Amino acid sequence: MAQIIKVLKGTKDILPQDIEMWQFIEEKANKIFSSFGFKEIRTPIIESTDLFSRGVGETTDIVNKEMYTFEKSDRSITLRPENTAGVVRSYIENGMSRLSAPVKLWYKGPMFRYERPQAGRQRQFHQVGVEMFGIKQPQADAEVILTAVNFLKSIGLNDLEVEINSLGCPKCRAVFKENLKEVIRPYLKDLCEDCQERFEKNPLRLLDCKVPDCQQIYSKPEIQKVITSDFLCEECSEHYTELKKYLDNLDVKYSENKHLVRGLDYYTRTVFEIKSNNLGSQNAVCGGGRYDNLVSELGGEPTPAVGFAMGMERLISLLPEKTPSLSDAFIVSNNPVEAFKLAQYLRENNINTEMDLSNKKFTKQLEKASKTAKYALILGEDEIANKQVSVKNLETSEQKTVSYEDCIALIK
Ligand code: HAM
To answer: Cis omega before residue 102 (within 30°)?
Structure first.
């Protein structure tokens, strides 16, 4: 026998018995995001590698270690590790800055990161997300967070933790970074390898290191004093205060986390995550924030923007399993011509109908019907002669012989 080829590590099939949950989440995303005025956008899964190295940032783990990159006709191409950069590219390329602000876009689809697979972390995973362009006021941040919370509620996730923080603007953040390095420098040799590497390149990322020894160092009073210091400039501070007021008014519960820094370089001011206590170490279902400089960094007019993305696999793992739904009807018959006719009639009337396609015995057909459908529609010789069908409710075993028209009313 030929050798079986298996699915790649860190990737998964989404099987028919699981697909309804995916469809449920995608439909809710469409409904809730549309209710806020977001329009769906679909961008390519492959993009120029430069888009991510410039967009997501050269110092991030995503760009440094996790991209699926390949050469084709002397061009370097990358499977998208996230979708903000792609949506920004499309916004610029399609002149969406000419549209009146805000421009609100949402998306769903697969992303690719070459990470070490573990529970809640895959190499191909799926996101739903939104991006809003053109509004610098904190109302936009509040509306984006509200969109995320409303969507999560709509799928039955009411009790997740919203965490927020402000990373300031490049100006006030630069001073903060220097202060941080200053107090951490004496402990540099005791930090984990990742933190040592990030110390110069991306010192903010030290704050979300999960290694206990590093966490212990960062909890020292002189370091905490800097981490919790109010480093924001006047405008950034006002933006953050206003955002919190809006969230309070909207009754969105949140906590402030000074260690929340996010793993992508494009953020300015607001960052947020929504977490679950039931997910183990990969506990963020949603991550987002403001990125006021990304559009101009990728060649567009300076345009403020804010958005989020959620991991669909993580959402699904928090929801109770759905049992796959049954077909409405299964036709049991040894007369394929008549069975096809009835099936066609039912399908035209929006009744999901299956039928036996191999002339099995009636008992076998009934067995199959009871596993896959709500009603067995029996078309024996008598029924055909009288232009009728016997409709058997497979839950109650009640059976009635009726005309084709009445059969529709009975099932509906
Ligand atoms: P992110 O935090 O990298 O942000 O990803 C968002 C969400 O995608 C995470 O909270 C998590 O639920 C899910 N996720 C990320 N990596 C994986 C993985 N390897 N396996 C399974 N799920 C994963 C972004 O991607 C930004 N583009 C979000 C954004 C949009 N910011 C502004 N606009």
So the answer is: yes
Q: What is the pLDDT of residue 209?
A: 92
Residues 93 and 148 in one domain: yes
DSSP for 272-332 reads EEEE-TTSTT--EEEEEEE-TTHHHHTTS----EEEEEEEHHHHHHHSPPPPPPPEEEEEE
* pLDDT score at 281: 87
Q: What atom of ligand 1 comes closest to residue 121's alpha carbon?
A: 20
**One domain for residues 269 and 396:** no
Question: What's the 97 CA to ligand 1 centre distance in angstroms?
Answer: 25
Regions of the chain with pLDDT less than 70: none
Model pLDDT, residue 248: 98
Q: How far is the CA of 311 from the centre of ligand 1 (A)?
A: 6
Say which CATH number the domain at 334 has: 3.40.50.800
Q: Are residues 81 and 150 in the same domain?
A: yes
Torsion of CA 267, 208, 29, 104, to 10 degrees: -10
pLDDT tens figures, 343-365: 999 999 999 999 999 999 999 99
Domain ranges, residue 121: 16-168+232-318
| Residue 143 shares a structural domain with residue 267 | yes
pTM of the model: 0.95
Atom of ligand 1 nearest to the CA of 284: 10
DSSP annotation of 28 reads H
pLDDT (tens digit per residue) in 56-102 = 999 899 999 999 999 999 999 999 999 999 999 999 999 999 999 99
| Segment (H or E) for 79 | strand 75-79
Same domain, 32 and 150: yes
Residues 293 and 376 placed together within one structural domain of the fold = no
Atom number in ligand 1 closest to CA 291:
32
Number of structural domains the chain divides into:
2
